[in-house]
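Aim 2 progress update. The chain analyzed this quarter is reproduced below.
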Amino acid sequence: MNPISRFTAIGLLSLSFSSGAIAADNPSLYQRLGGKEALTAVVNELWALVAADSRINARFAHTKPEAFGGQLVDFLCQASGGPCKYQGKDMKTAHTGMKLNDAEFNALAEDTVKALDKFKVPTGEKNEVINLLGSLKDEVVNR
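Predicted structure tokens:
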């Protein structure tokens, strides 16, 4: 191996080791939430809360729980740094014509907090999830 190739190889190895250390020291939100199993549990609880919430349950009357749950789990998994690939429509397209209002969006956010609280998700991670979902408000409300 010539000196330049050796230097490049050593540099790449150093980078890969340091990247591993960084990943271990700074786990993704997905990892901190507990992975796909934990996300699935939270989303299942969220579905139960939404179904019982008279402020928004009519919006989900024709939604299949497995479709809602599966897409939301994949969305959260991907958005939080996990290995999943969300295959659904983008949020703007998915919500066009629904004319969701601020109160409905806020009700879903409140139910999300309740679901996260049930599983004792720490405040920092809970805030990250809420901020992630909150960042979608302009794509979802009044479409």
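The first helix runs from residue 3 to 25. DSSP finds eight helices and no strands in the chain. These observations will guide the mutagenesis experiments scheduled for the next reporting period.
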